[in-house]
């Protein structure tokens, strides 16, 4: 059916045809008014249509923005990780692309973020936990490795983490091991990596963290010194209430692990550069990809190293000094090895232990009934550290044992003087944690924080939110039972 505008035009042409033969017709001036009126009506309809379409598109864009940037969106779990694996067959390329994407999206406000606060309708925070005198909004953290050079701590905090660990950072820049050095084992949601502590170096990372601090200070009307003196009322590292930033440090590969003084110098250099911008310093002596690094977990060298780090940390020109933790291997798991670590922790004055790292072991990693592809069978035998859900049981076991040993050693040393800090040592757990039930288990076993790494690689940027929701649901069920 013809539009009103076309029907009107045909009628008008018929009406005017007789006058075309008369050079001086008496034209009824009312005639031209009808098309003008009809055009006006059509124009008004078109304008209304344009407004309607624009409104619909604008609404769709806003809704799309809120959906795509919300960590609860299913696309972050089911779509984005799979697309990344297709676009970037090399796992390290995917890692760098993910970091760059988060950094770029954050800079323009299009990053995924957690929109549901940790508090409930009454203002209570069921997941809150006190760590080092700071009430964390929640006990879920992100382990070092995702953000090696402290490029994206704020986008990671935006995902809902109570703790973010960046690093490991070495005193001098180093390339790490030759590529390829990261391999997927998708059937087990696992990764093999032998990065070898690739790092831009302490000076570069410190410069970046300092600029971050200064930018934040300017935004709230404070100076850098006032921030370091704690006048802003937020932790100096995270720059966020109820959050902590951990900065992991390590020695350079070329530093001889048998030269304890040289090793101490490496770590002390890192502390000197990075301590002002960290809430917690993490001493990495457990990476499996730096030759000889795990040898530093022996009681003698570990005590000397940790004592040097604690002493340097106390010199930090800041009102609240950074805490110090040591990250230990899941492979050194017999009682004598663990007792040696516990002794070094107490003797040095270190504040806590991060239990877990990647494993060099290759037994028990593939669940019963899971069949690996030929490429995965090759990948899983690559040299390097394995991370993934298969590590959870070992992590849980080690957390419980370290908790008992640390507390027992505290009781044994009562009355020996100020060399021992009588406060309970803090434990962070990392290794194989992928859901809320597992997080609650390690927390109940004695950890204060449950940290994820590979779980985010496969679970996407909504992993932290999902784990916390699962924890709240389980706690609510438990409360109803009581």
Radius of gyration: 31 Å
- Report how far the terminal alpha carbons are from each other: 71 Å
Please estimate the helix content.
40-55%
What is the percentage of strand-forming residues?
5-15%
The counted number of beta strands is 13
Mean pLDDT: 89
Broad shape: globular
Main sheet specs: 8 strands, parallel, barrel
Give the SSE string.
HHHHHEEEHEEEHHEHEHEHEHEHEHEHH
What structural class do the secondary elements suggest? Answer: alpha/beta
**Sequence of strands across the biggest β-sheet:** 3-4-7-8-9-10-12-13
Low-confidence stretches: 1-32, 415-421
Give the number of helices. Answer: 16
Question: Features of this protein?
Answer:
12% strand, globular, Aldolase_TIM, 8-stranded parallel β-barrel, single chain, alpha/beta, 16 helices, 482 residues
Draw up the topology in text:
Blueprint lengths: L3 H13 L16 H36 L6 H4 L1 H8 L3 H17 L21 E3 L2 E3 L3 E3 L10 H6 L4 E7 L12 E4 L4 E4 L8 H18 L4 H5 L15 E6 L10 H15 L5 E5 L14 H15 L9 E6 L6 H14 L3 E4 L18 H7 L4 E3 L4 H21 L13 E5 L5 H9 L4 E4 L1 H6 L3 H19 L1
Parallel strand pairs: 3-4, 3-13, 4-7, 7-8, 8-9, 9-10, 10-12, 12-13
Antiparallel strand pairs: 1-2, 5-6, 6-11
Helix pairs in contact: 1-2, 7-9, 9-10, 10-11, 11-13, 14-16
Give a quick summary of the entry.
Helix content is 44%, strand content 12%.
